[in-house]
Design goal:
The protein is 47% helix and 13% strand. It has 19 helices and 15 strands.
Length: 555
């Protein structure tokens, strides 16, 4: 003890200063580490956008995420093992700061199971009661999300009851008219049309569909009541694929009326589902750190916030602010006072098509070029910009992203998203923008490369080419079940991605793995994205324009 004291006493002054600085540095690092946390996360199912990608985002931001073994989760072939999920959740003894859970996973066994199950009302009620009685440490913040059953125009590939592939359009029209009737806005002719559907649709098909909707609606009523009672710190109900007139829209309206006195701080009904896991994890981060990030919205020229996306019942001008609130943020109108600028690329006329549509070409409009130039000025100043590319559904805007990338602006973004529905994309873009200050730039780049390869190169280009070929060969059914076509389709996808990747600096020399986790064309799993040591710049310059039917314009 004396020896240590004497050593410190006679230490040269510059060593003393260095020691003090070191201690301050350690203290600062410790304080920063304490800002991070650990979260339990039960995702909706094992699709990458619901499971692995949100986990990678959160881990990149420095948080520990505890998830059930993947084999417990719903996959493309089977629903979740609900009992094992329950036991996993109930046995968690780790010290965590929050839990974010999909109630659909615990109650039905996942998203697809929520649309196809044959569970009795008594079984469903018992599982809701089990959630009510779940014992958790009082210091753990508890967040949950459920879904309202979707109302698709059509559906294939065993994600609805079998009959939906034949009678889906008729059920969709019936749903539109039922919603209209509920608000007493139907015409006499439409009233007759409803009766015709009820008489002519196979009674067992319509009854099965309505019975399941009624059971799921009752579960959501009970979950909303738990939110009202304070069982959750925050609860969200997501509206799966729907439209301004649909059963989903009608059910959301009814639950909203019954919970009208519950504030948005504890309960919301939101458009979209697949983004809710990451959105609520982000809310947990913000509440843990006592922050409410300020978000400024920046739309492309055109109708912008008046756009009603495909698969949604609300214009973006309403749904985007709702998602910002869900993530624990607030909206500001001055970009200089914002923590995040959410750039939203919407169709100029508000009409949204799938990214595989022939209108998705490799040139940007004059309005888009002006918008991109403004984005570039902000990016050069170091503004935190997260881009939500929703000009098309289910993939990127080729012309917009080509222009962004050739000007060198894509690399300067904090995040990019262009996947699935507009609401899914925007939810991820909000979350990643809010988390950007916590994610090192190198990790931001890796996450962005994954989304660019998936949302742009694959969804808008590879998927389009493969779909066209399958349809020409009269093999369209393979889109929903790849089976023996998998090796050929995978090679085609990688060929398209590699050719596009070589054309842009952000992905030149990229290394990645690609898989089809649900054995269908719609989604891929892009992992282990890295830049190779030699980025092959010279090769990327000489290979521009090699991809048939996908021109890439140089600088």
């Amino acid at each position: 003890m004396n020896r240590i004291h004497l050593g410190f006493k006679w230490m040269p002054i510059f060593n003393l200063i260095a020691a003090v600085l070191l201690m301050l540095s350690v203290s600062a690092s410790t304080a920063q580490a304490k800002d991070k946390g650990a979260f339990i996360f039960i995702p909706l199912d094992n699709r990458p956008v619901c499971y692995s990608f949100p986990v990678r985002v959160m881990e990149a931001a420095g948080y520990k995420i505890l998830t059930p073994p993947e084999k417990f989760l719903a996959s493309h072939t089977a629903p979740a093992d609900t009992e094992k999920l329950w036991k996993w959740l109930e046995s968690r003894a780790e010290k965590v700061d929050a839990a974010v859970i999909s109630t659909d996973a615990l109650i039905y066994g996942g998203l697809v199971a929520s649309r196809t199950h044959q569970l009795s009302p008594s079984v469903l009620a018992a599982r809701v009661e089990r959630l009510k009685e779940l014992r958790m440490d009082k210091n753990i913040r508890f967040y949950g999300f459920s879904t309202l059953m979707r109302t698709p125009r059509e559906s294939y590939g065993n994600v609805e009851p079998d009959y939906y592939s034949q009678v889906g359009p008729a059920i969709y029209r019936y749903s539109q008219l039922s919603d209209k009737s509920d608000i007493h806005a139907e015409s006499l002719l439409e009233d007759f049309e409803v009766g015709a559907f009820e008489r002519n649709l196979a009674k067992d098909h319509l009854k099965d569909w309505l019975d399941r909707r009624n059971k799921n609606m009752e579960v959501n009523r009970q979950l909303a009541m738990l939110a009202r009672m304070g069982r959750f710190d925050y609860f969200a109900i997501g509206k799966d694929d729907n439209a301004p007139l649909s059963h989903t829209h009608m059910e959301a309206r009814k639950i909203s009326f019954s919970n009208a006195d519950v504030t948005q701080d504890s309960f919301q009904i939101l458009p979209g589902v697949d983004q809710l896991g990451l959105l609520l994890l982000t809310r947990a981060v913000n509440e843990l750190s006592h922050q409410s990030p300020k978000v400024h919205l920046m739309y492309v020229e055109g109708v912008g916030p008046k756009t009603i996306p495909q698969y949604s019942d609300l214009p973006l001008g309403i749904s985007v602010p709702e998602q910002i609130i869900a993530a624990g943020g607030s909206l500001v109108h001055d970009p200089d006072s914002a923590d995040v600028v959410l750039a939203i690329n919407t169709p100029a006329d508000g009409i949204m098509y799938d990214s595989t549509n022939l209108s998705n070409q490799y040139f940007a409009s004059p309005a888009n070029k002006r918008y991109i130039a403004n984005l570039g000025k902000m990016l050069e100043r170091g503004v935190n910009i997260s881009l939500a590319d929703v000009s098309f559904s289910n993939g990127a805007d080729n012309g917009f992203m080509n222009e962004m990338s050739l000007r060198g602006y894509t690399e300067k973004l904090s995040a990019y998203n262009g996947w699935n529905t507009a609401d899914n994309t925007i939810g991820f873009a909000i979350s990643q923008g809010m988390l950007a200050s916590r994610i090192p730039k190198e990790k931001q780049m890796i996450l962005m490369q994954e989304r660019i390869i998936d949302d742009w190169y694959y969804q808008s280009n590879a998927r389009r080419q493969i779909t066209d070929e399958l349809e020409k060969e009269k093999k369209a059914a393979y889109k929903y079940s790849l089976n023996e076509m998998l090796p050929k389709v995978k090679k085609q996808a990688i060929d398209v991605i590699d050719r596009l990747a070589a054309n842009y600096d952000i992905t030149a020399g990229i290394r990645y793995t690609l898989n089809f986790p649900w054995n269908r064309l719609f989604e891929v799993d892009i992992t282990n994205v890295k830049q190779s040591k030699d980025k092959l710049r010279s090769k990327s310059r000489s290979s521009r324009g090699l991809l048939p039917d996908v021109p890439v314009y140089s600088k």
